[in-house]
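thread from #wetlab-drylab

HS: before we spend reagent money on co-crystallization trials with manganese (II) ion, can we at least see a predicted complex? here's what I'd submit
DV: go for it
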Amino acid sequence: MRFLHTSDWHVGRTIRNHSRSEEHQAVFAEIIDIAKREQVDAVLVTGDIFHERRPPLEAEEIVAQTLADLARAGIPSVVIPGNHDDAFRLRTLKPLGDLVRVHVVADFTDDLPSLIVPISARDDKESAVIGCLPYLHPHTVLTAAEGAGNSEDVRLRVYQSKVQDYFRALVEEMQRRNRTAVSIVLAHAHIAECEFGGGEWRSSVFPVNAAFLPAHVQYVALGHMHKPQVIPGTKSQARYAGSILQMDFGEREQQKSVCLIDAHPGKPATVTTIDLTQGKALLRRSGTAEAILAQAAEFTNAWVEIVLQPDQRTLELVDQVRTLPGVIAVRFEEPDGKEERIGESANRRIGDRPATELFSDYYKLKRKNEPDPRLVALFDRLYREESVGSETGE
Ligand SMILES: [Mn+2]
């Protein structure tokens, strides 16, 4: 049997307030083409479907459309939530999804059979059991007694030992269900010592040791880390498929991909990756304004962050850099990184001083130069607009 493993879609993610919906639609079209061309028996999606717990409606529409396109192509999918997802929200897809073989396993429960999705090969000659472990938030795993009053170390140990038990129970149930089928486990978890891509949210995600991953299944499909990678030190083949777009500048210039898994009962699975080509590249370029302007042709299909070097720039050139197509952020290189107090005024309380004065001081501190009066006037206008806006609740 053949499966396509993809993960960390993060639909609804913007970059510096720029929508990425078109990129998401393009990369989903690419993934669906791969699934059709490779004649996969199912697509496995290991969490972080949405970027936020309350995604914009457009994001929900894109996800529904993508899963419907797969269903229309006759390709079943198995979907679990990640740490970004709201399990309740994914559960709302379930009643309709079940009708078209979009299998959503939104919650971890004691009802082990509900965590297992059977998939048949296109020719019905082989079958697979897919065991699903949706993302386990420490709050839902630890009882009040285990959480309260215990140190981080103790809580981590309890969490890990419970997750290990859940994996064991899941695999036992899979074997009870069908001992001769292809066996695959889906999970969204931070496996200790794996490499971050850059765009992951790390708060309140406890690490799990690679040694706790199930040993006697053919493939463990993982979500959470955005850099595609093989998990070393496991008895089963285990991989992070990684995100499908470069999610933020930490992931710039990373090649994104999906995994293809060929698995037959009783034999080791073969895994290959297929590079994704859609979506814009995230680039960071540093140099003088002149040097950046000379590279502008590279920025047409990219999101670019510019780090301007402090010398030889004029406001006009900086403005030209700022308005280049693709440029979404411009920062100035720190001259030497050393903070320097500004004379007498630093002794007065910040709240007592006008915003334009604070701005001028900050500018002088960072740039070793008096700000252009036009810049101070612009700051003043924007500051007033923003202050009025926030007072009226806009
Ligand atoms: Mn993620």
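DV: Residues 337-346, 389-394 have pLDDT under 50 and may be disordered.
HS: ok that's useful, forwarding to the group
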